[in-house]
Amino acid sequence: MLMKVLEFFKNLPPKKCSQCGKTIDEQHECYGNTCSDCLGAAYRH
Predict the structure, then answer these.
(1) How far is Cα 45 from Cα 43, in angstroms, rounded to an integer?
(2) CA angle at 10 for the pair 36 and 33, rounded to the nearest 5°
(3) What does the alpha-carbon distance between residue 14 and residue 17 come to, in Å, rounded to a whole number?
(4) Which among 38, 11, 2, 10 has a CA at the least distance from the CA of 23?
(5) pLDDT digit string (tens) for 1-45?
(6) Are residues 15 and 23 in contact, defined by beta-carbon separation less than 8 angstroms?
């Protein structure tokens, strides 16, 4: 059973920004759907 859950998250497609469509480099299960560029964030990784 645990392997099925892990496979689900492993096989999720890359998350895309809802504003510009750029791939977001973060965890797929995160709630945010806007990249830092579109948010205007001053802090960059």
Answers:
(1) 7
(2) 25
(3) 10
(4) 38
(5) 567 888 888 888 888 999 999 998 776 567 788 888 888 864 555
(6) yes
The number of residues in the chain equals 45
Instruction: Tell me how far CA of residue 25 lies from CA of 3, 4, 15, in angstroms.
Output: 24, 24, 8
Task: Determine the straight-line distance between the first and last CA of the chain, rounded to whole angstroms.
Answer: 35
Cα separation, 42 vs 30, in Å, equals 20
- Could you tell me if 26 and 40 are in contact, meaning their C-beta atoms sit under 8 angstroms apart? no
Given this model, what pLDDT does residue 43 score?
Answer: 53
3-state secondary structure 16-42: ECCCCCCECCCCCCCCCCCCHHHHCCC
Q: What is the pLDDT of residue 14?
A: 85
